[in-house]
Design a protein that fits this description.
single chain, alpha/beta, 10 strands, 45% helix
């Protein structure tokens, strides 16, 4: 009896030696882009720059965000912005090439479409994900490559396979990291919390000045002419305003600030609308 061939559904594995190294400046840049993202954007994506080392390790040394719009079934990238940024970066660092792309959060449905675009820019690009919301309490940073799913000779789809990722720091980056590390906080304060902390600090300083003046007047501390002149000049520089005039000045200034915020919001909305129209026109 003659045997018939069988069509097998199989994954095309990626090279086992594929790994990546990322520098701290890339992580800081991604987090900064996430903080500065537009109000309506849920995540930030961008391009990874670097080189491939002789042992096959991908060295990720730089990055930049790329404006985009995405929905459940489509993604629109600002390709002109991407090309202009790449040209500008290569004028400064001509040895850095595209090695992949990054996104904040995790792998979602639209990631496959974006990965397909970068697959046309570079062979086997790296997909770096950064959990900027610290859902697990730590900064979860992962790297993936695309693995093909084929049915016989026909390519059906692709999936993301995680690869080894290492943090790499040169001496200059280690020095900067050591300086920034003590300033790490668990939560970034908002504007109101920052104003509250500043006001509390100001009140504490004024209380220290009161205590110093009382101690000098009552003879518990030796007077210092330099401090006295400094306090006198500071008080003389303050304008003499009645409570009603001070309240009016604060209210007028607050209204001016609110007007500026309103105008800036309108400008940002118009720029965002123009960017979407430009991107849609390029796609059409």
């Amino acid at each position: 009896m003659a045997t018939t061939g069988q069509t097998v559904l199989q994954y095309v594995p990626s090279p086992a030696s594929v790994s990546a190294k990322v520098h701290p400046i890339v992580i800081f840049n991604i987090c900064d882009c996430y903080v500065r993202r537009p109000d309506q954007a849920e995540r930030v994506i961008g391009t990874l720059l670097g080189s491939v080392l002789p042992d096959g390790t991908v060295d990720i040394r730089n990055s930049y965000a790329v404006p985009h719009n995405e929905s459940s079934d489509q993604v629109a990238l600002d390709i002109d912005y991407h090309q202009n940024m790449l040209t500008s970066h290569q004028k400064v660092n001509p040895k850095e090439v595209i090695v992949g792309w990054f996104s904040t959060g995790g792998v979602i449905g639209g990631s496959a479409l974006i990965h397909e675009f970068y697959s046309r820019e570079v062979n086997n690009p790296i997909h770096l994900t950064v959990d900027t919301e610290f859902r697990t309490g730590n900064a979860s940073i992962k790297a993936f490559v695309s693995v093909g799913l084929s049915l016989g000779d026909q390519q059906l789809a692709a999936q993301f396979q995680e690869i080894a990722l290492f943090l790499c720091m040169v001496e200059a980056e280690q020095i900067g990291f050591d300086v920034l590390k003590p300033t790490i906080v668990h939560k970034l304060p908002n504007d109101l919390e920052g104003m509250e902390a500043t006001t509390e600090r100001l009140l504490a300083l004024i209380d220290d000045v009161y205590k110093y003046v009382d101690n000098v007047v009552e003879g518990r501390s030796a007077p210092d002419n330099k401090i006295g002149r400094f306090l006198s000049d500071t008080i003389a520089a303050l304008p003499k305003l009645s409570p009603n005039a001070f309240d009016k000045l604060v209210n007028d200034n607050l209204q001016d600030q609110l007007l500026l915020l309103y105008l800036s919001s309108i400008t940002r909305t118009q720029l965002s609308l123009a960017e979407k129209l430009n991107t849609a026109a390029q796609i059409i």
